[in-house]
Request: fold
Amino acid sequence: MANGGPFVVNCAGPRFEVLLMSENTLLAALLGHQPDQAVFLTTPDGDVLCYGDLRRRVGQATGHLQVAGVGTGDRVLCQIAKSPEGLVLYLATVAAGAAFVPLNTGYTGAEIDYFLGDAAPALMILDETTQDASGVAEARGVRVSSPAELTAGGPMVGPVPRAGDDLAGILYTSGTTGRSKGAMLTHDNLLSNAQVLTELWRFTDQDVLLHALPIFHTHGLFVATNVPLCAGGQMRFLPRLDIDALAQHLPDCTAMMGVPTFYTRMLDDPRFTREALAHMRLMISGSAPLLAESHAGFEAKTGHAILERYGMTETNMITSNPYDGDRRAGTVGHPLPGVEIRIAEPDDSGIGVVEVRGPNVTPGYWRNAEKTAESFTQDGWFITGDLGQVDADGYLSIVGRQKDLVISGGFNIYPKEVEVEIDALPGVLESAVYGLPHPDLGEAVAAAVVLNAPGATDEGEILAALADRLARFKIPRTIRILPELPRNTMGKVQKNELRAAGSG
Ligand code: MLC
Ligand code: AMP
Reply:
């Protein structure tokens, strides 16, 4: 698509259409729009796709996936650069009855090896940018294919019938104990969330969403594609957040979804004026806290009150500020229709851990009954690990996190995962990883390291060793060598002290 000429409108085959409409309700909701009604997906180089084209491509890719050995209930790992083909492969995997497992393109071979072992996929999709992982996949006996092979022309195959509680995807999310867990997401999890958000945010077939997020996370893969697809709208894919491309393409769009870094960068750029954004219907932020001052600054500059919402890989979206009515800075709004939240064991200020229940919530972690059990209360509520407070008008504010987590530019980094890698290095006695405030990314990863002996290793050696083990976004931007870590009387490392010293 990105390299070819414009697509000719071409209705999908009747067999695919019939099955699509009846037995795979997620795909029916996302793709069941008039084949030639409206263009829905465009690429930066101007190629155009309509829903009929997309259905045809999904049907063809479904056939290729089946030939490659993907069957009902299988997993398909996918580590590829962002492109419309990535979206076709997600939808085709769902059509083949399998679970789509997207991976951050920054993951190293060591990280990929873990996902291969855990997910035991029938197929791994790699492109020329991620070819390095093919050796790891082959060593595990996993077949590898490419987007080019899987999205080539060919006969269309209709979607496999699936029930609402069947898996559509597994998204890996790091954990407090270091190892990533695969959050299972069912057809109903995705469909219920997409339908609710489409209505709440008033998406229609007239909308064009500017899509500059990666498509390996909930935000970019599910919210920012399922919602416009559900509405029969359009998306404009940018490969990444490039502020010049944003300025160029926003005039064609009606809505945007981004992490707070998108908005702080736009705030700093003189091109995003009130006039330049006057045509926009909706600007949405999520995945990390949007500072109240960024919200206020953006509104003062552009006239747009950013609509902030709150979610999680395991739960899809949980709350949203209202479409009509007061979008309150520093809050994440109200629970979505059909979704319930409660604050567990609130303190005197009403602050406690946010728990959530609803059709959006994961049934649990892939092949990890222990973590699943730990993440739910006895009475079935999912424990987010976020600290929240609900005001008199029912607006939720996320005021902190109980979980030890750094969110950098919307990417989550669990310190434990980085600490385990640093602690394993020669010359290192122990380490503590924490987040420091960062003007662009919200938080940046920092590490305090205690050596076995003075000079046993240094910052450069540590960084070099981590480069092979961890994706770039997890690698500390600052490392401080300390004689010892600050601990309380219980022996627990005081990360607050490290943060205070680091930012002071
Ligand atoms: C890139 N880098 C990062 C980084 N992104 N480092 C820390 N944190 C990040 N988020 C590193 C790169 O590896 C590179 O390192 C250098 O920074 C510059 O890379 P870049 O590609 O030029 O960065 P940039 O394009 O500026 O990307 C920043 C960003 C991007 C914020 C636009 O990270 C982004 O799109 N984030 C969105 C994440 C997201 O979708 N989260 C949703 C999770 S779902 P070097 O050393 O090679 O130069 C979720 C649930 C919910 O949370 O509620 O939505
Ligand atoms: P992830 O595990 O990548 O899905 O990230 C989910 C986490 O991102 C949540 O548990 C929150 O800590 C954080 N998060 C998402 N949206 C918001 C928001 N609007 N404000 C504050 N934190 C958020």
Notes: Residues 60 and 155 are 6 Å apart (CA to CA).
